[in-house]
Amino acid sequence: MNGSYPFVVNWECGCVFSEKALQELKPETCHGCGGNIDKANIIQLNPEGELLKEYEAKVAEELLAKKAKKSAAKADIVEGPSVNPEIEKGNIFLQ
C-alpha cells in the first residue's frame, strides 16, 4: 500500500486487495475469507475525481432508500396490525 497501485475492498466481507492482483487473478471467491466476490461490491480505497462522485451518489441513493424503508415501517406501526374482530367484541373466551 505504497501508492503505486490502487487498493480495493470487498464490501461484503471487508477484505482488502490490490486492484492489480484482483485484475490478474479474476477470482470467483475472496482469497482472504473464501466469501463471494461481486464486482458491484468492489470499492476502491481513496478514490479521486469521477469515481469519488459516483460513490457519493451511490451512498446518497442508499440513504434515501433506507429512509423510505424506515418511514414505510413507521407508517405501518402507526396504522397498527389488523385485530381479530371477535377479540374486540369479547366473543372469544380463554379456556
From TrEMBL:
Which PANTHER family does the UniProt record give? PROTEIN C20ORF43 HOMOLOG (PTHR12775), REPLICATION TERMINATION FACTOR 2 (PTHR12775:SF0)
Higher taxonomy: Eukaryota, Metazoa, Ecdysozoa, Nematoda, Chromadorea
State the organism of origin.
Answer: Panagrolaimus superbus
Would you tell me the protein name for this molecule? Replication termination factor 2
Cited InterPro entries = Rtf2, Rtf2_RING-finger
Q: Which family does it belong to?
A: Belongs to the rtf2 family.
GO cellular component terms attached to this protein's record:
nucleus
In Pfam terms, one family for this protein is Rtf2
Q: Name one GO biological process term.
A: DNA replication termination
Identify the domain of life.
Answer: Eukaryota
